[in-house]
Specification:
369 residues; 9 helices; 69% helix; rod-shaped
Length: 369
């Protein structure tokens, strides 16, 4: 009897009473949606080793002999359950009706929208770092502490080009001075010829003498204008050669020198890292420095090749242009001071130089009206 009573006591403690069952059913009914009875609810529980948690599905179970299809509804999960579903590799799709549906599959994250401010900040950071490295390299070279890459043949050609540019600029400046002085002389000769011609008409006794001088000054003024046209053509051609062709080549030389400084700066940085210890912290830096060094080395090689090609073409163009202009300048000066008017005019025709008639550019009185 004692053993039987103890077993009944244990059973009473492990199973809930009728009142507790009734109370639990009432609580479950309160938590269900309106219009859904307890008889329409089915609880499916999965083990702890599964990938999903317990799911409560509500639907009308068909009666025996009934062919009606069950109607299902899904209770919206809580925020904690949604986070756990996302952590388990499931997609949670919430339609517009406010209910949630669970769809198996990987979670696909959209690409982050790039922030323009962050991109600009990154560009400023890279520019600042590059400027710092280049400035350090320049100071090291001037102090004699840093090493620089030198192409002896190319550097010699660049030095010759800069020296020639200074000499050509001096020739251009002197030719412009000569043109200005010749213009003043021609203007004076023209005025003097007009004065002699006026006096030859008013002085009967010296009519022939004033007339000879007037013709001479007018002829000199005409030849001076022809020579002035040749000199101005010479000035224009040399100015194009010096201030456009040579200047364009020197601009490429400046870009080459900037690329050389960047190349030496990153080369020095890589050498310093290679001399240091090699561990887990320095190896990524060495690899990144090696990549940057390779990029700037390719840029340096490209600019060096561009400078070599431009110097070659410039030399050919310079010889051709200066040869024609020097021949023009010599023949025009020689014909002018020899008084050979025909030879002077022939020189201008040879180089296809057209003189501007004085006052030809001035608009007529009809155009002014």
């Amino acid at each position: 009897m004692s053993e039987h009573s103890s077993e009944s006591t244990t059973l009473d403690e492990s199973h809930p009473s009728a009142e507790e069952i009734q109370s639990g059913c009432e609580d479950l009914k309160c938590s269900l949606p309106v219009g859904l009875g307890l008889s329409e609810t089915k609880i499916t529980s999965h083990g702890f080793d599964g990938a999903k948690e317990g799911v409560v599905e509500a639907g009308q179970f068909p009666n025996k002999g009934s062919s009606a299809s069950p109607k299902s509804s899904v209770i919206s999960p809580s925020s904690a359950a949604a986070s756990r579903l996302a952590g388990q590799g499931c997609d949670l799709i919430i339609p517009t009706g406010g209910r949630a549906q669970q769809k198996s599959g990987p979670v696909v994250l959209a690409d982050e929208v790039k922030n323009p401010a962050m991109e600009k900040l990154e560009l400023v950071r890279k520019w600042s770092l590059n400027t710092y490295k280049c400035t350090r390299q320049i100071i090291s070279e001037k102090l004699g502490r840093g090493s620089r890459t030198v192409d002896l043949e190319l550097e010699a050609q660049i030095d010759i080009l800069r020296d020639n540019k200074k000499k050509y600029e001096n020739i251009l400046r002197l030719a412009q001075t000569l043109s200005t002085q010749l213009f003043q002389m021609v203007h004076t000769q023209r005025q003097l010829g007009d004065a002699f011609a006026d006096l030859s008409l008013k002085s009967l006794e010296l009519h022939e003498e004033f007339g000879y001088n007037a013709d001479t000054q007018k002829l000199l003024a005409k030849n001076g204008e022809t020579l002035l046209g040749a000199i101005n053509f010479f000035i224009a051609s040399v100015n194009t050669l010096v201030n456009k062709t040579i200047e364009d080549t020197l601009l490429t030389v400046k870009q080459y020198e900037s690329a050389r400084i960047e190349y030496d700066a990153y080369r020095t940085d890589l050498e310093e890292l290679n001399l240091g210890p090699r561990d887990a912290n320095t190896l990524p830096k060495i690899e990144q420095s090696q990549q940057l060094f390779q990029v700037h080395k390719e840029k340096y090689d490209k600019m060096r090749n561009d400078v070599s090609i431009k110097l070659k073409f410039l030399e050919e163009n310079k010889v051709k242009v200066l040869h024609n202009q020097l021949v023009l300048f010599h023949n025009a000066i020689a014909a002018y001071f020899a008084g050979n008017q025909k030879q002077l005019e022939q020189t201008l025709k040879q180089f296809h130089i057209k003189l501007k008639t004085p006052g030809a550019d001035a608009p007529s009185w009809l155009e002014e009206q």
